[in-house]
Amino acid sequence: MPTWPRYSYDGLPTGPAADRNNTVVAADSQANVRVQSDACHTLGVDNISPNINLNVLKNIGYPVKASDEPTEKYEKIGQVGEGTYGKVYKARSKVTGELVALKRIRMESEKEGFPITAMREIKLLQKLRHKRIVQLSEIMVSKGSVYMVLEYMDHDLTGVLGHPEFRFEPAQAKSLIKQMLEGVAFLHHMGVLHRDIKGSNLLLNKKGELKIADFGLARIFQKRRTHDYTNRVITLWYRPPELLLGATAYGPAVDMWSVGCIMLEFFTGKPVFNGSDEISQLEIIYKIMGTPDETIWPTVVDLPWWELMRPKQPLPAKFRELFARYVDYEVLQQCFLMSDGALELLEALLALDPSKRPSASDALKFPYFVAESLDTGSPANLLEITGDWHEYESKRKRKSGTSSALNGNGDVKKASVTDKR
Amino acid sequence: MAANFWTSSHSQHWLLDRWTIVQSRQEDLKYVSEVDIVKLNIWFCNLIQKLAKRLQLRQQVVATAFVYFKRFYTKNSYRSTDPMLVMATCVYLACKIEECPHHIKMIVQETKHVLQDIGGFRYDSSSVAEFEFYLLEELEFYLIVWHPYRSLTHFATELGIREAGLQYAWFIVNDSYRTDVCLLYPPHMIALAAIYITVVLKHADFAPGSVGDKLDMRQWFADLNVDMAAIVEIVQDILGIYEIWGDWREDKVIALWKELKHRS
């Protein structure tokens, strides 16, 4: 009998899982036993918010279960953010004392039922188990809304960069940029485009760990296939030129542009491409990175809005000139010499032609990480920041009068909930 | 998306055992027999399939809707709920999850059409939107369902089964959703069972010189290192459904449904 290679594909058991065919079933049996008496529950008005029409459920005899109330299990400490589809709270578990983030998904006024963006996020977070991705521990249902229970992170990058005194050392910046790239490399490996990488979605904790959050705009993409997606994604300041020129077939390179913008922000302390609308955004990019033409970006002429937004006069790239020795005259302590490695990686990430940007895993192999001597230790002095620094709180502090040279956030309206792409 | 079945929510939370399924039917079993429940299952699946056809959904989306429907009814009885609302909502949700969303109005309108001669559909969009919330809760928000189709195509290519044979096995997988196997076994096991039936009934048409042509299929299955007893159980379940399906008639099932619904 010829020896036949052991079958393997990503669903069939190989290795340690090989004998799990049935043991899984057996192990599960207890957890799934339902108490049948639940079915006798009548609808208590207390259990349901007034905006829910009781009749539908009564008509079909749907048993309302006495499920865990989030307010009984978690104690809300305060609001720390405002997401695509609801508020984010900091809370403490009454059972374990552990801190969590509760992300509330608004259910009211949703004609199309449960928001598809929230559904995508849940679906993705259940699959994306990685130390660089914020982890979803459970989902709780309460009075007409749903809470995602996420691991709590002390800060987000926008919040920390907006901190009046705190500045990253070059080695810390390098560590965080590396962690960001590791997270993005994992996402792209799993076939996921994030499509909204920006400071407020990069969370930090006091141990100096960085995790990627907010998958409300993320989509699964197929490698080797171009798709018809919406170009109304990614917050304006982090949006790559191909999207600004109307591309609907795009891939992981869109996230790499955003990663480049964030990396630059680590050095400058504030967003560099800070347009106020699509047109000025493109102009600012051209001013710094130069104007594209067919020689440096052959496919640019095929983009839908190229003719419409065609640069009036060709501009040269000024990137090196501007950032090799950077002095911010508004915030004088913010001046630095960027290393050759950093400049090289930034130039690659911020290539106008998306096909010239390195993938996240290739970016991790750049001399900036592998050849330059700076050690990439975790930024432990995040421990010394007192309080929690999220974009939400920094914004509120700024609003209350302590305005600094820092800009507000370039949030623009995102793809609508019913957007099919 | 490349991922591993064993780490999926499907594997970790939604592979049940037969005892759990029998328990979940106790309420309905007070009024009708076990075979009657199987007949009702076939009916509801047919209605979902009809609705899906009107919406021109891919088979994978239909299969996800089937699984949602079945998972919901491992925690609820037919008698105390309205399967028509559950069915429409499962299709609506499956469309969203499989990234081919339809407007809720469209779902309601097409459900009305499918049910027009058999009692109609008395809900509007807001009922479906509201019910979706409860469906999600019952599904414990575990929404990604793995199906046998991908493994089936993979095995068929590996073995060298030609188009007609693959088509036959594919239909068997479609039919398997009328049974409970999608609640009990991992999808690749169901795919293997479909291949097993196809081979035994001599519908597997192997390309000359292919693995399936050269190798004794008994040996092929033995070398897979999977639990053959489980494969045989799946095969029996599927063959069992064909027996009941043979003399299944919609008018009789409608009468049966009325009996279950109204008997006190």
TrEMBL record, chain A:
GO biological process, one term: positive regulation of transcription elongation by RNA polymerase II
Region (Disordered), start-end ranges: 394-421
Keyword entries, A-Z: ATP-binding, Kinase, Nucleotide-binding, Serine/threonine-protein kinase, Transferase
Pfam families reported for this sequence: Pkinase
Annotated Gene Ontology cellular component terms: cyclin/CDK positive transcription elongation factor complex
Catalytic activity field: [DNA-directed RNA polymerase] + ATP = phospho-[DNA-directed RNA polymerase] + ADP + H(+)
Gene3D superfamilies in UniProt: Phosphorylase Kinase, domain 1 (3.30.200.20), Transferase(Phosphotransferase) domain 1 (1.10.510.10)
GO molecular function terms noted in the UniProt entry: ATP binding; cyclin binding; RNA polymerase II CTD heptapeptide repeat kinase activity
Residues at which ATP binds: K103
Ranges for domain Protein kinase: 74-369
EC numbers on record: 2.7.11.23
Domain of life assignment: Eukaryota
EC supergroup of this enzyme: transferase
Record field: compositional bias (Basic and acidic residues): 411-421
CDD domains (UniProt xref): STKc_CDK9_like (cd07840)
Stored SUPFAM superfamilies: Protein kinase-like (PK-like) (SSF56112)
Protein name: [RNA-polymerase]-subunit kinase
Provenance organism: Umbelopsis ramanniana AG
TrEMBL record, chain B:
Subcellular location: Nucleus
SUPFAM superfamilies assigned to the protein according to its UniProt record, in alphabetical order: Cyclin-like
MF (Gene Ontology): cyclin-dependent protein serine/threonine kinase regulator activity
Main localization (coarse): nucleus
Pfam families named among the record's database cross-references: Cyclin_N
Family according to the record: Belongs to the cyclin family. Cyclin C subfamily.
PANTHER family given in the database record: CYCLIN
The protein, known as: Cyclin-like domain-containing protein
